[in-house]
Design brief:
Length: about 450
């Protein structure tokens, strides 16, 4: 066991944004008798896929006032911007900053923690890849790719998104991955998906001087809507129809939008007004309703819930108007390599037959993992193979309790293994944005530090 005898040793697997936020919440209590080991396979902590970009055009999808790392200090990020001279003279509620700036913010939080905990020994950081984790009679054992092992009392998976492409794995690539090498600026490109990840891929192409035609393909061909400052409606828990049939909930939601618009409001006021209840709504539905939502409703929800800042929305819609970016409704039928090019066969909705596009690159921006059991993260796979974890009923994440404890194959929650962030989307769904993740991290940190106090008292 690492650290001082009796001290609760917590190993966080994944040092991206989720892992850093959890470490920050755990160590915010100076009296907590804990030791946090943060493991990240990348050399840079606090970035992951989302914040590793250096492109200024890749901006946060939440305004500056909503990006604090701490659930109990909502203006922490804004104060950091002011303190470091990065706060422009603009309303923070309407300010959407480059994502690499948020990576600097998280790095600053880590630097402060390391300096503060240098004498206490409560924080240890390792740039290594974790390949497996297991519960033991006395705690947890974590194996690293370099052949070494760590032992502790608690392990928390904060591994974020699946990094390998979900569609056409031998053809498509993820934007920003090692395979995302420069592409011929005059070549055509196919992007699978039309959401915010597609916008990121398109922005990267444009930033590198791409002039070729870009086709963005999805089942519905929907583009994310635009952010607009409004007045979120006020709802009580009793106002929200929890546990009802999906069809009933959709009708209630649409009626609420119509009522709000007739009163002079905006549909965004409804979407933002029910946000505090989103996780409760999701958890109140049976697996059958969740599945129908994923298959039939999620695309419509996503474009209204996950919106673009006004300036970016104008750029993207202008590109669609002038034809440099084409939104196509349909699906990928097949793809094969033809020398340096790719022959991608697509079937557009309503078309009499398939057509073949000859492109230099196919990007996978399709979003949620179709089946967690086919993912490539070795830790997740090892836990499932050993029966120490199981996929949620939709297989889009790990099955976890409301307190983030990983549920084993036998249906029993683990007392030593936990998960946070996007890996828990099957249980919470709305768990990919910083405002949601920080609340989850705060809750888990309070539970674990209380556990440390009880152990110390005992």
């Amino acid at each position: 066991m690492t650290g001082r005898p009796g001290r609760l040793a917590i190993i966080i697997i994944g040092g991206g944004a989720s892992g850093v936020l959890l470490a920050a919440h755990l160590l915010s209590d100076p009296e907590a008798d804990i030791r946090v080991t943060l493991i990240e396979k990348r050399q840079a902590f606090g970035q992951g896929l989302a914040y590793s970009t250096t492109l200024d055009d890749h901006i946060l999808n939440v305004s500056a006032l909503g990006m604090s790392a701490y659930a109990d200090d909502p203006e922490h990020f804004w104060h950091w911007l002011e303190r470091t001279g990065r706060a422009p003279d603009k309303n923070p509620r309407k300010l959407y900053l480059p994502r690499h700036l948020y990576a600097e913010y998280l790095a600053g939080i880590l630097d402060e923690m390391r300096a503060r905990e240098a004498q206490s020994g409560r924080l240890h950081m390792m740039s290594e890849e974790c390949v497996s984790a297991a519960a033991t009679p006395s705690g947890v054992a974590v194996d690293l790719a370099n052949g070494t092992s760590l032992v502790g009392h608690i392990a928390v998976l904060a591994v974020g998104h699946e990094e390998q492409p979900l569609v056409g794995k031998d053809i498509a690539i993820r934007p920003g991955s090692e395979a995302d090498t420069p592409v011929d600026p005059d070549a055509d490109v196919l992007i699978l998906g039309t959401g915010l990840s597609m916008v990121d891929a398109w922005l990267s192409l444009v930033a590198h001087g791409h002039r070729g035609h870009v086709v963005a393909l999805s089942r519905r061909g929907l583009l994310p809507s635009m952010h607009r400052k409004g007045n979120p409606i006020r709802l009580d828990a009793a106002d929200v129809p929890l546990g009802t049939e999906l069809s009933y909930f959709v009708r209630w939601f649409r009626d609420l939008v119509r009522t709000t618009v007739r009163a002079g409001g905006d549909w965004r006021d409804v979407v933002d007004g029910i946000r505090p209840f989103n996780q409760k709504i999701w958890r109140s539905w049976p697996p059958s309703a969740r599945r129908r939502f994923i298959e039939h409703t999620r695309a419509w929800w996503d474009i209204h819930r996950h919106r673009m800042p006004p300036d970016l929305h104008e750029r993207v819609t202008q590109a669609v108007t002038d034809g440099t970016l084409e939104l196509a409704t349909g699906k990928l039928v097949g793809a094969s390599r033809e020398g340096d090019a790719i022959a991608a066969t697509i079937k557009r909705r309503g078309a009499p037959g398939p057509e073949t596009l000859h492109v230099a690159r196919v990007y996978d921006c399709t979003g949620i993992t179709a089946d967690l059991t086919t993912g490539t993260n070795p830790v997740v796979r090892a836990l499932i193979d050993r029966g120490l974890a199981r996929p949620d009923p939709l297989h889009i994440g790990l099955d976890v309790t409301e307190g983030c404890a990983i549920i084993k194959a036998d249906g029993q929650p683990s007392e030593r293994l936990y998960a946070i962030g996007p890996l828990t989307r099957g249980a919470f769904f709305e768990i990919e944005a910083i405002p949601d993740i920080r609340v989850q991290c705060s809750m888990l940190a309070k539970n674990l530090t209380e556990r440390a106090r009880m152990a110390q008292a005992g």
